Amino acid sequence: MNVEHHRTMDAPPExxxxxxxxxxxxxxxxxxxxxxxxxxxxxxxxxxxAALRHAGMPPGWRTVASRIERELDVNVTRRGVVWLxxxxxxxxxxxxxxxxxEASLALYQDVLExxx
Length: 116
Prior knowledge:
This protein has about 120 residues and is of the alpha+beta class. Helices cover about 35% and strands about 30% of the residues.
């Protein structure tokens, strides 16, 4: 008897993004939002570069970003995107969302100080 078994698995989407408001604001009319990116089984949280999009990229911004990386334990890309992965052994998603929001706001505020 020849029996054929088919296993169907719901594969996670290749890429899924969700934007979330955090309750923080760069200015009263500009909320700090983060994006949760799911790539297969991996999660990343980022600010899509919003801090520097709103504050600009004056000379010295990278030095400020490096300090924010060290102090708040986040990553900042060369394009100014604040981000972190969400990993099983680390803090949970909600903590990472909060950390990225706080770091994005801090980067925005500190970069504005460079222009004064």
